[in-house]
Design brief:
The chain has about 750 residues and is of the alpha/beta class. The strands form 6 sheets. Strands 20, 21, 22, 23, 24, 25, 26, 27 and 28 form a 9-stranded mixed β-sheet that branches. Strands 1, 2, 3, 4, 6, 7, 16 and 17 form an 8-stranded mixed β-sheet that branches. Strands 5-10-11 form a 3-stranded mixed β-sheet.
Length: about 750
């Protein structure tokens, strides 16, 4: 044993290292990621894949939108829906995975009131008729009257401040329901409630009429997937329940929620391990973790609950037996309404079905537990397995070491599956598996210098993403690169072919494949030329980024130059396309900079070196709206500020799909040092037009736009603003209008 003392010592250090992670002295990101992968694997392996007929999802689907019009619908339609559901179909409970935060003025009552006060003032007949029809036109009151005294549970969302946001920007609109636990309930107890600083709730009259309400905020893990839902959350010291819990309580007669505390809790652990509902049929227990959240007991992929189109209910095309005494969840699967989530069972999964699974788990009492004592159990297990392997492996031959390590892995995984299936308990195994693998790898590679293989490893990892010149540079400095997840300042570029669907429909598959190669290859070379990394090809779209895997202080500048050169390169290809009988290809390029997550991301089946974050999404949105302004390249404000060497045209302030905060968008026209005097004057004049436009000085705006159109007759941008001016002359915006244009599509 003496000759292996160093190896044994290193093995024991590995054991201590993973024990520190398990005891939460620190957290290791790789182990957390592996833990999520293993959890997903167990969930997919054991989920029942059966349909729960008790819960029906009333779907605001494409069919409903086509028949009833775009969402949101008038509250009179929803009032009718309530009558249909409760009076004709006899449902038990209705829950809304939508929020009614704004008043419904679609009835035209406001216009009639103005007529009554102005043009038809004194017209007694008109006033009499208006008075008689007003109750039918007050849609919010009508809807409130239809949910009153019925088992209707409303939904709302909670928000938290982002970096740079003020309290006013966070916002608190609408009315919250009564809290499940009043302020001060858990005073002095270190309960780890998820805390929120703002909310978007329902109109007061709707909330007062409803039986209850619950939040529909899931907990999104580091990889973007929804595995847990917080059952109770905290807002300003009060404690509010989730939508699924509120619906379960409403269904069961509104039993009181009791906080269940384990015995023998320590000073920094509250011991809150479950919530309890004391119902007439017995006690229902809902396990919660350290965040007072529960694991979603997914039954299977999308479709684990019956779906009924909401328009079919409105028009009574559904068999009464299908809805009688059912629990109804109103939500949407329409892609345009963006209520889709990434989950362990599907990358795109309806958010409403997350709540349905949670509600089903509460009623069936099959939610997985992760009690506090599992931390101690994991530490003991690690010490037993780890110390045994650290002492034993150095004494064994390679074959025996493989067999012993494999047995330890199988034993750990088997124990985990057993307690998962028979005890409904989540036993963490990722730390143990990592420890076994590390101990085995240490034993097999002891004395072997990994540094001698670094160059081949770097080439294998990054050769498919970056140009060979960068691979060579990385091999010289391997310490500067990693595929492990990291957060850094980067620039992201999206390019996409405009009207590609129409183009593809006009070509046979072989010709289309040739066309794709002909334009993607030179555009990719442009990205490589300017030190960019190709993230992926998405059909006709190129996604690239700068700043990883190697740091690049000029990432924003390189991206802009690449975007402009891509446009130039494509223009040079047009004669060749024409000779081949192909249509002209035009692309839009969106560029944005900011802090994003970069690294190897994916699943146990497939991983990819990629970037994620809000700034990535904004770059994609910018590419999508280039065609709206008739420009080739759009950049975000962060990119523009990072590269002052360019002359930019500030095109607009917009609110893109998926973001509440307005953003400024810019067109990089040319390098400032190379821009002609005429071009500089044109940009300057357009910026003056923008200033007049925001001031609502329509006459001067229109005059200067005419001057700009004479300067550049082919520009699409100036007619767009001329159309806006014409519209605002007829439909003046409010006095406090901020000039922001809202995009309703991606």
């Amino acid at each position: 044993m003496k000759k292996n003392a160093i190896l044994i010592g290193l093995g024991l250090l590995i054991v201590l290292f993973v024990v520190g992670h398990a005891a939460s002295f620190y957290r290791v990101g790789l182990i957390n990621q592996l833990s999520s992968i293993l959890y997903d694997y167990r969930l997919q392996l054991t989920m029942p894949r059966t349909m729960d007929e008790r819960i029906v999802i009333l779907d605001i689907d494409e069919k409903s939108l086509k028949e009833e019009g775009r969402w949101p619908w008038g509250r009179d339609r929803l009032a009718l829906l309530m009558d249909k559901l409760f009076d004709k179909y006899g449902v038990a409970v209705v829950g809304f995975d939508v929020v009614f935060a704004e008043k419904d003025d679609s009835s035209g009552l406001k216009v009639l009131k103005r007529l009554e006060q102005n043009q038809l003032k004194g017209d007694m007949q008109f006033q009499s008729i208006l008075a008689s029809i007003t109750p039918q036109l007050e849609y919010d009151k009508l809807f409130a009257s239809k949910i009153a005294n019925r088992n209707v549970v409303l939904g709302y969302y909670l928000t938290n401040a982002q970096a740079g946001m003020t309290h006013i920007e966070i916002g608190a609109s609408g009315t919250l329901p009564e809290p499940v636990f009043p302020p001060g309930t858990f005073k002095g107890k270190p309960v780890g409630f998820v805390t929120w600083t703002g909310y978007g709730a329902n109109l007061p009259e709707l909330q007062q009429a409803a039986a209850s309400a619950g939040h529909f905020n899931p907990l999104v893990d580091f990889d973007g997937e929804v595995r847990r839902v917080p059952m109770i959350v905290e807002y300003k010291g009060a404690y509010y329940e989730s939508l699924s819990l509120a619906m379960a309580r409403t269904l069961l007669g509104k039993p009181k929620v009791i906080a269940g505390f384990a015995e023998g809790k320590s000073g920094d652990y509250s011991g809150l391990e479950w919530l309890e509902l004391d119902t007439a049929g017995g006690k229902l227990r809902i396990p919660v973790d350290q965040d007072v959240a529960s694991f979603v007991p997914y039954r299977g992929k999308q479709g684990s609950f019956p779906y009924v189109s909401i328009s079919d209910v409105l028009h009574e095309r559904v068999d009464v037996a299908k809805l009688r005494d059912k629990i109804i969840l109103v939500g949407t699967t329409a892609p345009g309404l963006l209520d889709m989530r990434a989950t362990p069972v599907a990358e795109v999964y309806p958010g409403v079905e997350v709540h349905a699974n949670m509600l089903s788990g509460i009623l069936d009492q099959n939610i997985k537990e992760h009690p506090g004592y599992m931390v101690g159990a994991e530490v003991v297990w690690l010490l037993l397995i780890g110390v045994a392997l650290a002492l034993l492996l150095p004494q064994l031959t390679p074959l025996k070491a493989i067999l012993v390590s494999a047995f330890a892995l199988a034993l750990t995984q088997g124990a985990s599956l057993a307690v998962w299936h028979f005890g409904n308990v989540l036993m963490p195994v990722a730390t143990t598996l990592v420890m076994i693998i590390l101990l085995f790898a240490l034993d097999m590679s002891y004395g072997y210098f990994i540094e001698s293989r670094t160059k081949r490893q770097i080439t294998g990892l990054f050769g498919q993403y970056v140009p060979s010149e960068l691979v060579e540079e990385m091999s010289k400095h391997p310490e500067s690169v990693s595929m492990v997840g990291d957060s850094r300042e980067m620039t992201i570029l999206f390019s996409d072919v405009r009207g590609f669907t129409t183009i593809s429909e006009g070509l046979d598959p072989k010709e289309l494949s040739l066309l794709m190669n002909e334009f993607l290859t030179p555009l990719s070379r442009v990205v490589y030329k300017h030190r960019g990394t190709i993230d992926k090809y998405m059909g006709d779209c190129i996604m690239a980024f700068w700043g990883a895997p190697l740091p690049d202080e000029s990432h924003a500048k390189h991206a802009i130059i690449a975007g402009l050169e891509m446009q130039k390169t494509l223009a040079e290809l047009q004669p060749h396309f024409k000779e081949r009988g192909w249509p002209e290809i035009h692309i839009g390029v969106g560029i944005n900079s900011g802090r994003v997550s970069v690294g190897n991301m994916g699943s146990e089946v497939r991983v990819a070196y990629t970037v994620m974050g809000d700034e990535v999404n904004l770059a994609s949105r910018l590419e999508g709206i280039t065609k709206q302004y008739g420009v080739g390249v759009l950049v975000g404000e962060n990119t523009r500020n990072a590269v002052p060497e360019f002359l930019y045209r500030e095109l607009d302030h917009v609110r893109v799909k998926g973001k509440d905060k307005p953003v400024a968008i810019y067109e990089p026209v040319a390098l400032a040092s190379e821009a002609s005097k005429a071009l500089q004057d044109e940009v300057k004049l357009f910026h003056e037009v923008r200033r007049l436009y925001r001031r609502q000085d329509w006459d001067q705006t229109e005059l200067q736009l005419m001057n700009l159109q004479r300067m550049s007759p082919a520009a699409k941008l100036y007619p767009i603003y001329a159309e806006r001016v014409a519209y605002f002359r007829k439909n003046p915006p409010p006095a406090d209008w901020d000039g922001v244009f809202v995009f309703q599509t991606k």
